[in-house]
């Protein structure tokens, strides 16, 4: 294929607006997959993607299309729409010259539509607006056209109205891809310059890197160098994704495909890396911002004997998802485990679900926290810690105020799109989350777009659920990283009869200390078994008690439950009690079962 006959494009949209379905139709229309089969989101290969109906990993496919007597090569990169995976979107976009921006004809522009549009706009790509689901009874494509004009400044005439489900007008989408998206700007005569935009790990073949060639060509047997690691590799295989891998003799500039070169793990094929010929070193392409974990949680095996199993499962899974950060950690109550960093809550849930489904493990996941920072107060401390700012991903390591000039917390810029009738309630909700309003705009007569600056920790756990239930499911939400801001953070201890429980140390904003302390005390009260003496549960900041609950004394006699007779039942009860004891942790003279910790620490 000549460069002029190649188009590289991506499909972006709010979740469920029909990206994957449109991709299916495009694959059929170009004969890449059979039309007769019942094709449903064929690019969603992972089990969790099929179950949740969401795309987690971007997938690539090369399509061949004959238009007005000319054969074109169209490289389609399907992307996930959820905010947690927006790094996948930006990564895909760097290999493209244009995007299809899919908007549901019934729902209209939603929060992720806006976020994704701006990613494409900033990358200076051609944007083709596609209004999907025109077959729906409540579809109102004209209204959506006007929204697109108002919010994105794209003339409404540019919109293509389709039904991806029925296949209506999908051929116009392919035509627009050819006519409105420019071919890649590349130079085939120059030495090789290839961008690694994704990589996966295959047990038998090692790392499979997805590459976009900006200059030159590459074929089997070539010696290539990674700009990132400076290691040299021999290329074993190159090919296109069709959408399954199909080896070819060469890959040329302008093409998107895959490459296998004996790299042993995905860290050797860093996303954003440039590959070049060992004979002709080149200036590396601008890389990506690496994915930054925003949500941290402790992960422990339910039973310590499962530790090694879980360890190897986490290792294998992170081979394919380099955006998860892994630190070893241990807890007196829960044993040896890890502190894992994720891009967001959905990412954390998906990772957990994959561990369970693909590796058959079961784990305890603790309440997620965000990475706080502390700016150290003296030159002496800076020398001791070897840095001026320390990042705290584990509340137990929160440095004392005497050492700190100021604490910082991560903030995000959130976009909310809602029917106007819910605006008041949503503004009130944002207020309780310490959010600052930045922008308010009507996108049509009865829909509002709000922008707020949120402290990240105020939205990680249940903001989205609250927003959805306030708005009967109609409001949508997305956010982007907005750096750090000064915050009055404090460390809160939980005490049982005056003894600090190390695993329950929490970092909170001063305005939230009372509410959080109260919740933890209540949860403890509900799950801590009564003992022979009274137990005082307290939340404290330094020496100041801010919340308190009491567990009354109880005369422990498990046999009292059985009314005489049944001896086997008594034996069983006794056995169960001794087993349970093994899992107790003593705090002072109080016996706390592991189960209590799980109930208090676990995600709601
Ligand atoms: P994605 O999250 O953007 O990839 O969306 P999917 O392609 O997974 O589609 C989400 C849901 O919308 C699925 O249930 C599809 O069957 C449905 N859907 C997609 N396109 C259409 C369409 O044109 N008409 C109708 N009625 N439903 C559609
Ligand atoms: Mg999808």
From TrEMBL:
Give a yes or no for keyword Mitochondrion in this entry.
yes
Membrane topology type, per the record? Answer: Peripheral membrane protein
> What are its GO cellular component terms?
mitochondrial inner membrane; mitochondrial matrix
GO molecular function annotation: GTP binding; GTPase activity; mitochondrial ribosome binding
Q: Enumerate the residues binding GTP.
A: 13-20, 78-82, 132-135
Pinpoint the Tr-type G domain residues: 4-185
| Gene Ontology biological process terms, A to Z | positive regulation of translation; translation
- Reactions catalysed according to its record: GTP + H2O = GDP + phosphate + H(+)
Entry's Gene3D superfamilies? 3.30.70.240, Elongation factor 4, C-terminal domain (3.30.70.2570), Elongation Factor G (Translational Gtpase), domain 3 (3.30.70.870), P-loop containing nucleotide triphosphate hydrolases (3.40.50.300), Translation factors (2.40.30.10)
The answer to whether keyword Membrane applies is yes
Keywords, sorted A to Z: GTP-binding, Hydrolase, Membrane, Mitochondrion, Mitochondrion inner membrane, Nucleotide-binding, Protein biosynthesis
Localization per Swiss-Prot or TrEMBL: Mitochondrion inner membrane
Question: What job does this protein perform?
Answer: Promotes mitochondrial protein synthesis. May act as a fidelity factor of the translation reaction, by catalyzing a one-codon backward translocation of tRNAs on improperly translocated ribosomes. Binds to mitochondrial ribosomes in a GTP-dependent manner.
Quote the NCBIfam families the UniProt record gives: lepA, small_GTP
User: Do you know which PANTHER family this protein is assigned to?
Assistant: TRANSLATION FACTOR GUF1, MITOCHONDRIAL, TRANSLATION FACTOR GUF1-RELATED
UniProt family annotation: Belongs to the TRAFAC class translation factor GTPase superfamily. Classic translation factor GTPase family. LepA subfamily. Belongs to the GTP-binding elongation factor family. LepA subfamily.
What is the protein named?
Translation factor GUF1, mitochondrial
> Source species, please?
Fukomys damarensis (Damaraland mole rat)
């Amino acid at each position: 294929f000549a460069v002029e006959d190649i188009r590289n494009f991506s499909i972006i949209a709010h979740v469920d607006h029909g990206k994957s379905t449109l991709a299916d139709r495009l694959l059929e229309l170009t004969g890449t997959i059979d039309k007769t089969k019942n094709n449903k989101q064929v690019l969603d290969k992972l089990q969790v993607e099929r179950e949740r109906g969401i795309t987690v990993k971007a997938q690539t496919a090369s399509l061949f299309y004959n238009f007005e007597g000319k054969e074109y090569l169209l490289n389609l990169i399907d992307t996930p729409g959820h905010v947690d995976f927006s790094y996948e979107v930006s990564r895909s976009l760097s290999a493209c010259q244009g995007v299809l921006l899919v908007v549901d004809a019934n729902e209209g522009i939603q929060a992720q539509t806006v976020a994704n549009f701006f990613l494409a706009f900033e990358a200076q790509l051609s944007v083709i607006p596609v209004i999907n689901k025109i077959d729906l009874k409540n579809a109102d494509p004209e209204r959506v056209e006007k929204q697109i004009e108002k919010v994105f400044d794209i003339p409404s005439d540019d919109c293509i109205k389709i039904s991806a489900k029925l296949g209506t007008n999908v051929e116009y989408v392919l035509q627009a891809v050819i006519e409105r998206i420019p071919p890649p700007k590349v130079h085939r005569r120059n030495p090789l310059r290839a961008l690694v935009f994704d990589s996966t790990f295959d047990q038998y073949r090692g790392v499979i890197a997805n590459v976009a060639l900006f200059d030159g060509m590459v074929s089997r047997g070539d010696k290539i160098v990674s700009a990132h690691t400076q290691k040299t590799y021999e290329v074993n295989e190159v090919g296109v994704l069709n959408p399954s891998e199909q080896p070819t003799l060469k890959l040329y500039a302008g093409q998107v495909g895959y490459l296998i070169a004996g790299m042993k793990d995905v860290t050797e094929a860093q996303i954003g890396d440039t590959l070049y010929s060992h004979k002709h070193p080149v200036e590396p392409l601008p890389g990506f911002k690496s994915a930054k974990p925003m949500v941290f949680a402790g992960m422990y095996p339910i039973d310590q004997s499962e530790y090694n199993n879980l360890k190897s499962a986490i290792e294998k899974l992170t081979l394919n998802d380099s955006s998860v950060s892994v630190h070893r950690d241990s807890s007196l109550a829960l044993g040896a485990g890890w502190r894992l960093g994720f891009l967001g809550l959905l990412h954390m849930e998906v990772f957990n679900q994959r561990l369970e489904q693909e590796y058959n493990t079961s784990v305890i996941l603790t309440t997620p926290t965000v990475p706080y920072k502390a700016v150290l107060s003296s030159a002496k401390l800076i020398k001791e810690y070897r840095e001026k700012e320390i990042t705290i991903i584990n509340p137990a390591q929160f440095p004392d105020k005497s050492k700190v000039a100021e604490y910082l917390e991560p903030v995000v810029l959130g976009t909310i799109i809602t029917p106007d009738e819910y605006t008041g309630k949503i503004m009130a909700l944002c207020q309780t989350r310490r959010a600052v309003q930045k922008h308010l705009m009507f996108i049509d007569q009865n829909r509002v777009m709000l922008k707020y600056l949120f402290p990240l920790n105020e939205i990680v756990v249940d903001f989205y659920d609250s927003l959805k239930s306030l708005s009967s499911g109609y409001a949508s939400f997305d956010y982007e990283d907005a750096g750090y801001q000064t915050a009055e953070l404090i460390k809160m201890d939980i005490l049982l009869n005056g003894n600090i429980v190390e695993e329950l140390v929490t970092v909170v904003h001063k305005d939230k200390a009372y509410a959080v302390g109260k919740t933890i005390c209540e949860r403890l009260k509900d799950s801590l078994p009564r003992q022979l003496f009274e137990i005082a549960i307290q939340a404290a900041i330094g020496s100041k008690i801010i919340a308190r609950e009491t567990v009354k004394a109880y005369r422990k006699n498990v046999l009292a439950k059985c009314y005489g007779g049944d001896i086997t039942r008594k034996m069983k009860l006794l056995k169960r009690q001794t087993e349970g004891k093994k899992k107790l942790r003593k705090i002072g003279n109080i016996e706390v079962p592991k189960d209590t910790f799980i109930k208090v620490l676990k995600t709601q």
